[in-house]
Amino acid sequence: MSDDTLLEFPCDFPLKVMGRKADDFAALVVGLVENHSGPSAELRVSERLSRDGNFIALTVVVRAHSKAQLDAIYTELSAHERVLMVL
After folding, report:
1. What is the DSSP pairing of strand 11-20 with strand 83-86?
2. Are 55 and 49 in contact (CB under 8 A)?
3. ∠ CA 28-31-32, rounded to 5°
4. DSSP output for the chain
5. Which residues are paired to 15 by β-bridges?
6. Residue among 57, 66, 52 at smallest CA distance from 16
7. More confident residue, 1 or 37
8. Could you tell me which of 18, 72, 9, 81 has the C-alpha nearest to residue 49?
C-alpha cells in the first residue's frame, strides 16, 4: 500500500458516471474507461435512469492497478462534454 492512497492494488473500483440519457452513453463511457484499463470482459456496468428518464447514472466497476490509472480515468471522464459528473 502506498502512502498517498488507502487502496490496495489491484482492486475492483466502482465509478459512478452521470449524463443525459442517450442510447450510446454507456458505450461512450465504457470506451473512455477502456482507454486506460484496456478492453476487458471483466468490466461490469449497471445503469439507472432518473425519475423523469432524462438522465442516466452508470456504475462501472473497473479492475484498477494503480492510483495513476484511476486518476487518468477520472480526468478523461470529467473532461468529456457529455459527462455531467463522475464520483
Report:
1. antiparallel
2. yes
3. 90
4. --TT-S--SSEEEEEEEEEE--TTHHHHHHHHHHHHH-S-TT-EEEEEE-TTSSEEEEEEEEEE--HHHHHHHHHHHHHSTTEEEE-
5. 60
6. 57
7. 37
8. 18
pTM of this structure: 0.90
Instruction: Output the pLDDT for position 41.
Output: 63
Q: What is the pLDDT of residues 4-61, one digit of tens each?
A: 789 999 999 999 999 999 999 999 999 999 999 888 767 899 999 999 999 999 999 9
CA proximity to 58, closest of 86, 32, 38: 86
Per the listing, cell 442517450 goes with: 22
Find where cell 442516466 sits.
56
